[in-house]
Recover the amino acids of this structure.
């Protein structure tokens, strides 16, 4: 693989760890979210290691998986450290793409299935991340079911076509991984959970409300219910309406 840019210099490679929340068509949830952590490949091992160290620091089992659905008041110090880690590394970024599900109407596109629409939305989430031609991107998504391979191939096709990467020189990898084996994918789940929970507006957990306020303060986000500018760096968000 040629890893040089148009000037002949080495291209920087970014790992993109994508996750989704409330994405099923009839799950009764108000808001669907797609999100991704972006990390330079040269720093990915370091960050995965740091996240593992935080679990050890807070006496968690080595196999403990950071997930938004597991958030509880007893682990607040751990979640604070996780947010500090994300906030503290300038090269770590997060992008989210939110959809208000009551606005979804597949009949507007004859023959469109929910799966096809889902891929289009995943493309819209990833596009601002992977559209810069001088860089190379490895996209990792969580394994969901036995049809994962076919779905990642379809996502790769739509994504490359959408950014005119016809020879696969820019998006060189779209691959399933197991979230319990990849700390950065767990971080994507955690931050996406923060964003989706805030936009659902159903505040039933004191711990989750405290984490949301902590995230906003430490990351410098004033309102998780609004779009950012298209090129916002640390925290980038778009709400599809």
């Amino acid at each position: 693989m040629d890893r040089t840019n148009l000037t002949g210099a080495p291209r920087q490679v970014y790992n993109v760890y994508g996750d989704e929340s409330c994405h099923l068509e009839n799950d009764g949830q108000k808001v669907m979210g797609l999100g991704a952590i972006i990390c330079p490949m040269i720093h990915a091992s370091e960050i995965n290691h740091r996240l593992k160290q935080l679990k050890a620091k807070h006496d968690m089992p080595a196999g403990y998986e950071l997930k938004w659905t597991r958030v509880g008041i007893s682990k607040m110090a751990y979640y604070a450290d996780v947010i500090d880690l994300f906030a503290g590394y300038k090269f770590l970024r997060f992008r989210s793409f939110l959809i208000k599900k009551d606005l979804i109407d597949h009949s507007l596109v004859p023959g469109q299935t929910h799966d096809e629409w889902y891929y289009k939305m995943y493309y819209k989430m990833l596009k601002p991340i992977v559209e810069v031609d001088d860089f190379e991107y490895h996209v990792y998504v969580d394994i969901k079911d036995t049809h994962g391979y076919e779905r990642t191939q379809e996502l790769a096709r739509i994504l490359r076509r959408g950014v005119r990467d016809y020879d696969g020189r820019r998006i060189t990898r779209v691959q399933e991984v197991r979230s319990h084996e990849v700390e950065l994918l767990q971080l994507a789940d955690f931050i996406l959970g923060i964003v989706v929970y805030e936009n659902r507006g159903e505040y039933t957990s004191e711990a989750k409300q405290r984490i949301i306020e902590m995230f906003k303060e430490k990351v410098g986000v004033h309102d998780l219910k609004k779009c950012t500018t298209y090129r916002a760096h640390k925290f980038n968000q778009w709400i599809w309406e």
Summary: The chain has a mean pLDDT of 87. The chain is about 40% helix and 20% strand. The two ends are 39 Å apart (CA to CA). Strands lie at 13-21, 31-40, 93-100, 136-142, 171-177, 235-240.
